[in-house]
Structure formats: structure tokens, C-alpha cells
Design goal:
Layout: H1 4-17, E1 38-40, E2 46-52, E3 55-62, H2 65-87, H3 96-110, H4 112-123
Antiparallel strand pairs: 1-2, 2-3
Domain Immunity protein: 43-123
Protein name: Imm63 family immunity protein
InterPro entries: Imm63
Length: 125
């Protein structure tokens, strides 16, 4: 298992490739109670956990650090993509494709294969 400080360093580097501000890339190590995802490596796996007010809503478990990094950055980039869509909305119309296109673009800046994977996931929604 990679130490947490090295995982954080890797996240910052990957985020830099997509021009994501470091404040958006902070890896939490426990629940803050407000639904912000965190990492749990207590079982020898990389768990991407979302919990709010003591209730766990999601736990994605993997042995593969790259897969965990995908989960983490997918969450960050999803939020950024919808913020981008909202900021570029015209006449209050909701254009979800703007957000999806931005998400694919940003994921592709980090990894071509992540961009393809994101596109495929969106295509099947």
C-alpha cells in the first residue's frame, strides 16, 4: 500500500495536469459528516467512501491505486464540470451535455484512457 502522503502527492500532480486548484484535491482520511468522500485503507484496500451524518452511502473497494485515483478524481471533476456548465448557461437553460463534455475533456487531460472510460460511462447513462 502506498502511504497517504504519497497518494496525496500523486493526486496533486494529476490534478495539476487538468489545471485543478489544489484546494479541490485534498484527500480526506475520515468522514467529516458532510458527504465529502474520504479514503479508508484500514483493511488493506483502497476504499473510496462517502458518508454523511454517520450514515455510509457508498463504499467502492479496490486493490488498485489507479482505480482509487479514478474514483477520487472522477468525483472532483464531476463537481467542476457541473460548476462549469452552470457558469456558462444561457437563459437559464440546462445543458447537461456541456457538463459531460467538460468532464471528458478534464479526465482526458489526466489520462487518455480515463477520458475514454468517462466517455463510455456517460454514453451508457
Amino acid at each position: 500500500m502506498m502511504p497517504l502522503n504519497e497518494i496525496q502527492r500523486k493526486i496533486y500532480k494529476m490534478g495539476q495536469d487538468a489545471a485543478i486548484h489544489p484546494s479541490r484535491l485534498i484527500l480526506r482520511t475520515g468522514s467529516s459528516g458532510d458527504g465529502v468522500p474520504y479514503i479508508d485503507i484500514s483493511n488493506g484496500t483502497y476504499d473510496y467512501v462517502i458518508a454523511e451524518r454517520g450514515v455510509e452511502f457508498s463504499r467502492r473497494i479496490t486493490n488498485d491505486l489507479d482505480e482509487f485515483l479514478y474514483y477520487f478524481l472522477d468525483g472532483v471533476i464531476s463537481m467542476l464540470s457541473f460548476e462549469y456548465e452552470f457558469a456558462h448557461r444561457k437563459n437559464s437553460e440546462y445543458l447537461i451535455n456541456v457538463a459531460f463534455d467538460k468532464k471528458v475533456e478534464l479526465m482526458s487531460l489526466i489520462s487518455k484512457s480515463w477520458g475514454i472510460r468517462t466517455y463510455e460511462e456517460i454514453k451508457h447513462l
